[in-house]
Automatic annotation (TrEMBL):
<protein>
    <submittedName>
        <fullName>DUF368 domain-containing protein</fullName>
    </submittedName>
</protein>
<feature type="transmembrane region" description="Helical">
    <location>
        <begin position="115"/>
        <end position="135"/>
    </location>
</feature>
<keyword id="KW-0812">Transmembrane</keyword>
<feature type="transmembrane region" description="Helical">
    <location>
        <begin position="12"/>
        <end position="36"/>
    </location>
</feature>
<keyword id="KW-1133">Transmembrane helix</keyword>
<feature type="transmembrane region" description="Helical">
    <location>
        <begin position="231"/>
        <end position="252"/>
    </location>
</feature>
<feature type="transmembrane region" description="Helical">
    <location>
        <begin position="258"/>
        <end position="277"/>
    </location>
</feature>
<dbReference type="InterPro" id="IPR007163">
    <property type="entry name" value="VCA0040-like"/>
</dbReference>
<keyword id="KW-0472">Membrane</keyword>
<feature type="transmembrane region" description="Helical">
    <location>
        <begin position="147"/>
        <end position="168"/>
    </location>
</feature>
<feature type="transmembrane region" description="Helical">
    <location>
        <begin position="200"/>
        <end position="219"/>
    </location>
</feature>
<dbReference type="Pfam" id="PF04018">
    <property type="entry name" value="VCA0040-like"/>
</dbReference>
<feature type="transmembrane region" description="Helical">
    <location>
        <begin position="57"/>
        <end position="79"/>
    </location>
</feature>
<feature type="transmembrane region" description="Helical">
    <location>
        <begin position="85"/>
        <end position="103"/>
    </location>
</feature>
C-alpha cells in the first residue's frame, strides 16, 4: 500500500463512473475491486504518521476518478436523460452481481446469526425508505444559486453527508445530494466554475470543505467498525448494497425493444461484477 500503483488508476476510474450515478456507490466498486479496506485505511491515514503511504495509495485512485468525471460526465448525463431505463438496468445488474461476493467474504453461513440478519434487514429498509422519500429528482439547472445563510450551512452539511456516503457501499454521494435537494445546484455550480463564473464559488468551497471533513470522520469510523466489529459491519454493508437496488431500479420498460435492451444491459452488468467478484481476493 506504500507505492504508487498504476493498477489503481483504472480502479479509480471505475469508482468515478459509479459516483456520477445517483444511487450507485463508489464504495461498492472499491469493495468489488478488492481495495475497499486499503482505501478506507488510506483516507483515514491522510492526517497521521502514515501520511506519505496514504497519499501514494490514494493518488492514482483520485486521478482515475477525476478522469472519469471529466471525460464521462456528459455521456452519463446523456444516457440518463435519453436512455435512463437501460442505463440503470446495467447498474442494477452490477449491484446484484456484488451480492454473491459479499456473502462469500462475510462467510455468512458460519458467522451470521439472528443479529446479523436483523442488521441486514434494517439497512435494507433504511435504503428503501430513503429511495421513496428522496427530494428533487430533476437534473435541470436551477434558475439561480441561493447563497442565504441557511443554505450555506446546508451546503456544508450536504458535503459532509455526501462524502460519508461515498465511502459506504450501497449509498452514493450524489444520491444523498438528491435527498437533500441540492444535487442540481451543486452540479450547476461545478459547471459554472468551469466556465469561470465565480459567483458559484461559495457553494463549491462549502461543499468541498464538507467533503473533506466527511471523508476524515467517516473513514475513521468505518475503519474502527471493520477492525472491531467485522462481521456486523459486513452485515450492514450487505443490507446497504441490497437496499440500494430500490434507488437504482428505474421502473419497468415501456416497449418491447426497451425490454430487450434493458435485459441485455442487466445481464452484462451482472456478469461483469460477478466475474470480478470471483477473482477478487478475500480481505
Amino acid at each position: 500500500m506504500s507505492q504508487f500503483k498504476l493498477t489503481n488508476l483504472p480502479r479509480g476510474f471505475a469508482m468515478g463512473v459509479s459516483d456520477l450515478i445517483p444511487g450507485v456507490s463508489g464504495g461498492t466498486i472499491a469493495l468489488l475491486l478488492g481495495i475497499y479496506d486499503d482505501f478506507i485505511a488510506s483516507v483515514s491515514g491522510v492526517f497521521s504518521k502514515n501520511f506519505k503511504r496514504s497519499i501514494m495509495f490514494l493518488l492514482p485512485i483520485v486521478i482515475g476518478m477525476g478522469l472519469a468525471i471529466g471525460m464521462l460526465s456528459s455521456l452519463i448525463n446523456y444516457l440518463l436523460a435519453h436512455h435512463q431505463i437501460p442505463t440503470m438496468f446495467f447498474f442494477t445488474g452490477l449491484i446484484i452481481g456484488v451480492i454473491p461476493f459479499l456473502l462469500r467474504i462475510s462467510h455468512y453461513h458460519r458467522t451470521f446469526k439472528a443479529t446479523h440478519w436483523i442488521i441486514v434487514l434494517l439497512f435494507i429498509l433504511l435504503l428503501a425508505a430513503m429511495a421513496f422519500f428522496k427530494g428533487e429528482t430533476s437534473h435541470a439547472a436551477p434558475s439561480h444559486i441561493d447563497l442565504s445563510a441557511p443554505m450555506l450551512i446546508k451546503y456544508f452539511i450536504a458535503g459532509i453527508l455526501a462524502s460519508s456516503a461515498m465511502l459506504l457501499p450501497g449509498i452514493s454521494g450524489s444520491f444523498v445530494l438528491l435527498l437533500l435537494g441540492v444535487y442540481s445546484t451543486v452540479t450547476y455550480a461545478i459547471s459554472e466554475i468551469v466556465r469561470f463564473n465565480f459567483q458559484a464559488l461559495p457553494v463549491i468551497l462549502l461543499v468541498g470543505s464538507g467533503v473533506v471533513v466527511g471523508f476524515l470522520l467517516a473513514s475513521k469510523l468505518i475503519k474502527f467498525l471493520l477492525t472491531h466489529y467485522t462481521y456486523l459491519t459486513y452485515a450492514a454493508i450487505l443490507g446497504l448494497v441490497i437496499g440500494s437496488l430500490f434507488s437504482v431500479f428505474p421502473g419497468l420498460p415501456t416497449s418491447g425493444m426497451t425490454w430487450v435492451i434493458s435485459v441485455f444491459t442487466l445481464i452484462i452488468g451482472f456478469v461483469i461484477s460477478y466475474v470480478l467478484g470471483q477473482y477478487t481476493n478475500e480481505y
